[in-house]
Structures are given as C-alpha cells and as structure tokens.
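Good morning N.,

You mentioned wanting to compare the apo and holo forms, so I went ahead and generated the holo version with pyrazine-2-carboxylic acid. This is what I fed in:
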Amino acid sequence: MPAIKIDDATDALLVVDVQNDFCPEGALAVPKGDEVVPVTNRLIQRFAHVLLTQDWHPPGHRSFASAHPGKKPFENAELPYGTQVLWPDHCVQGTEGADFHWDLEQGKAELIIRKGFRPGIDSYSAFFENDRRTPTGLSGYLRTRGFKRLFLAGLATDFCVNYSAVDGAALGFEVVVLEDGCRAIDLAGSLAAAKEAMTKAGVTLTTSTAAGL
Ligand code: VGL
Ligand code: ZN
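and this is what came out, ligand included:
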C-alpha cells in the first residue's frame, strides 16, 4: 500500500470506542485494547478532523447478560431484531468504564457520537443500530460536512470497527481501517469473519505505517 495523502477537506478520522471498559481491567476488556491509544493519538495529530464514538448503555441494557436470567456473558440471545451476543455489563452511561481512556487525546474531537443508548437495541455500528434500521445520524453529519473518506481505528476490530466500516462503505463513503490502531475481541473466529466482511464490502485494510500516517 503506497502512502496515503490526507485531504483535510474531505477526510476524517473516526476513533471507535476507546473507552476504559474495553481496555485491560475494564468490564469487557479487549486483549491489549490499550495498545491502540498511542497509535490513535498519533493519528489524531495527523488529521484535521477527528470524530469519536462512545458506547453508551443505560443500566439494564438488553445486550447485557445480566438482563437475561440464566444467561451468561458471551452466550447468544434472540432479541426482536435477531441474534445478539450477550455482554458483561459495560460502558454504562456516566460511569468511569464509559469514559474515554485517560491518555486518549480527545480534546480535538469535533463530534462524539454515542450509541447503544436505546434500552432494547444494541449498536455496534457508528451508522446503524443492531436492528440495522435505526440510524445514528452519522451519515447525515458526514455528508453535511463534506467528508468523503473515513479512516477508522479503535475497539473492537471485529465488532464496532467492523460494523462501522461495512456500513460506511455501503453508504458510499470510502473507508480505510488502520489495523495497527485496532484490537479485536475474537469470539469464535469473529476476527477472521470481520476481515472477510470488510474486504468484501470494499473497505481498505492497511496499517498506519503502510499508509505513511
Ligand atoms: C463493542 C461489544 C459490545 C465494541 C461494544 O465497541 O466493539 N463490542 N459493545
Ligand atoms: Zn456495548
């Protein structure tokens, strides 16, 4: 992959869910999740426009195993919109676990898009909730601002980054995932499946170093 030249007018960096609960010792720790922080901070300096997502669940959210008596985290449940992985309680609104990682240089962010706040619907994608219909509003924001290409980094590669990348591409944005700025949960082959889905959707998978960023 040759170096990518950033166009400040039409390129944006979207940093996905770099929150305490997805980092070591967090409630839904992604292995080595905190390693994305220095990479992401470097990327934040390189981009004129930085957007963040923040997983933001009310207590008792339906994606929590604790809301399903008899179910354990990482089991599946059938919800009205389809099969949903059940998670440990995480990123509860207003808690320290939902805060961005302390070292994340979030000050420059122009938009924080919160997702997963509807009690009955999970939201992996920054564009649509898991019913695949309820929009977050991000595509309208990006179009209104004139952004055409999105660079993604953050957590987790196989869930929120993957769904955001695939939806972004389907909505007509050019999407580049910077894999060294991401870490995966990797449940039952979910990382390999995510990479295949992103590739099929036309998402560019590269690294910040290969892209010269
Ligand atoms: C995520 C599982 C549950 C993510 C969020 O950010 O990838 N994964 N909530
Ligand atoms: Zn969540």
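Strands lie at 11-16, 50-55, 76-79, 82-85, 111-115, 149-155, 174-183, 204-206.

Happy to go through it together on a call whenever suits you.

Best,
F.
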